[in-house]
Design brief:
The chain is mainly alpha-helical. 73% of the residues lie in helices and 0% in strands. Helix 1 packs antiparallel against helix 5 and helix 5 crosses helix 10. The two termini are 21 Å apart.
Length: 207
């Protein structure tokens, strides 16, 4: 398909994936007693509250991206280490759940397309299929254990990394490290097989 058309058909998946990802962080933190996400207007699925322009463009053009980070205050948590882990993992779990649902819908539309060969059904299929793939991309990318990604928050709480002497120095330069990994294509060694495995698994179930 024409690359411009692919980008257009990918837009709904990007908007939904980023919005649900960030809203999941906000909602879980809110449920754990933190008033910060609500005060900042993040308890919503409205894309305007969650989408970072640069992250949106990066996901559209490069296949990875990010939303506006949800600010939290762990002083409100009853069990900070456990609760921060739950907040960190909420986004990727939500993207996985969305990918599963979207795979199911894609499979149904694909079967309908095979029966009708309707161009409308073809476009609908690609919209949902790309949305599934984008959510898998967001899930796998955010699981990379480099700050400020969710994967870093997950391993931080699992292994109590804040007790390590090097933790804050690494966190301070995390964004620089992540940019270098992206531009050196190191992240491709994680993204490509991770997305491929998950995509093939979902397709084998629903197609």
């Amino acid at each position: 398909m024409d690359s411009i058309l692919i980008k257009i058909l990918s837009l709904p998946g990007i908007i939904v994936g980023l919005s649900f990802h960030e809203a999941a962080h906000a909602y879980v933190s809110h449920k754990l007693g933190d008033p910060t996400p609500k005060a900042q207007g993040r308890l919503t699925l409205n894309p305007l509250a969650h989408i970072d322009v640069i992250g949106f463009i990066a996901l559209l053009l490069c296949g990875f991206g990010w939303g506006k980070p949800v600010m939290i205050d762990n002083r409100y948590y009853r069990r900070p280490r456990r609760d921060e882990f739950l907040v960190s993992i909420a986004g990727v779990v939500t993207n996985l759940a969305l990918a599963i649902v979207l795979a199911g819908v894609s499979g149904m539309i694909y079967k309908s397309y095979l029966a009708s060969h309707s161009q409308l059904m073809e476009y609908l299929f690609y919209i949902f299929f790309y949305a599934m793939t984008i959510n898998l991309c967001l899930m796998v990318f955010n699981l990379i254990p480099v700050p400020p990604l969710d994967g870093w928050g997950i391993v931080t709480q699992l292994f109590n990394l804040r007790q390590k002497s090097w933790y804050y120095n690494l966190y301070k330069y995390g964004s620089v490290i992540l940019i270098l990994l992206v531009f050196l294509n190191v992240t491709d060694y994680i993204l490509t097989p991770g997305i491929s495995i998950m995509s093939n698994l979902l397709m084998s179930i629903f197609f």
